[in-house]
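Example 3.
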Amino acid sequence: MTIPVPNTIEFRWVSWRAGGPASKEILADVSFAVPKGKTLVLLGRSGSGKTSALKLINGMLWPSSGQVWVEGRATREWDAIRLRRGIGYVIQEAGLFPHFTVAENVGLLPRLENWSSAKIAARVSEMLELVGLEPGEFAQRRPRELSGGQRQRVGVARALAADPPILLMDEPFGALDPVTRAELQREFGALARRLQKTIVFVTHDVREALLLASRIILLEKGRVVGDAAPEEFLQLQHPEVLAFTAGLGVNGGAR
Amino acid sequence: MTGLWRFFVEHQSEIVGATLEHVELVLYAMAAAIAIGVPMGMLIVQRPTLRSLALGIAGIFQTIPSLALFGFLIPIPFIGGIGKRTAIVALTLYALLPILRNTYVGLTEIDPAVLESAEAMGMTRAQILFRVRFPLGLAVILAGVRTATIITIGVATIAAAIGAGGLGTFIFRGVALVNNSLLLAGAIPAALLAILADFLLGRLERRRRVS
């Protein structure tokens, strides 16, 4: 008998529509749970609702019906600012502040939380090392002086800076060249296992999903059509699952 | 040409005096327009319902012919009358639109990914405004200040019509007496002021540009 791990994030029959009650549902009746320290991958085509699901977690969107629970409280009951400060957020192209140096980008949230400057400096160096960037070389650079892969690393460092228990990632490696992408996926996978963060990761790349997920949820037009651990996911027979797995080789290798 | 040069040398102190008066009018008007336009631009970013109203009103002042605007203000109590104060009010109203519009555009036309990150990180609206939107929009705001300054230097020549002094004094006298030297004694310094302002503010603007 194993002790049940508390769920950090839970969707309970969540629907979301962009407009009024008559408008089309972007998400329909979605339920799932992410236990503490696990990585959930939301897989789906463009327009399947996966990014909306992500934004429902940090209160950038609110459910039209149903509830999203984060750390034992519905998102509506959270103060949005407090909720978001406990959730790291990484997007494609990183969204770094172009007028800040790398160090200022990474140290922004600690600064807003009134950490001492010595503590911020130490934390920035620690985070840059964590994502494989030499602080001495990169701390004072501006985002435009970095490659795409380096910017994405800074994005991850910034999301982790205030040590949030939860990390949301929206196709963070989507804009990178295949070699850099594979490199970052591998490193991030190792990092995620080491840090024990609860992670929700959005992607349309089934191989990325299989590599990083503790559990994969496949969305099609706002509905959950597949929900399985990676090794079981390949056995699912839903047509949308087959559409995603068809390109994989027998061993899950080349497309 | 030598006649003009002699005229300039002979009336040196009057020309310098009028130029300083002109600069004074422009500086006061620009300070007021920035003090009103920039905060108002920030406000309409946060309150979109006020946007069309504010831009509309600022736009109306621009459509009023400048000489008429000076005239309209004369009978208004407190701000009106003959002289510098009325002129500064009119110039301020004139300079408002480019500053207000550029402030709004500068603060809103920012990479959506950057704003999304800022919001998702848990920055408050005020923090996003002052730490993200304002520094990133500053170059565009300064471009508005530059446009407004150049317009104001030109329009300020008309202030002489309501007794506010400045370089327009020479121009109006030159027109009345059909005297080109007098006309140019007003027009050339005004043009040089505009070029100088364009150069200096342009340099400041380029330094604030973040790519």
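The radius of gyration of chain A is 18 Å. Strands of chain A lie at 7-17, 25-35, 39-44, 65-70, 73-74, 87-91, 166-170, 198-203, 215-220, 223-228.
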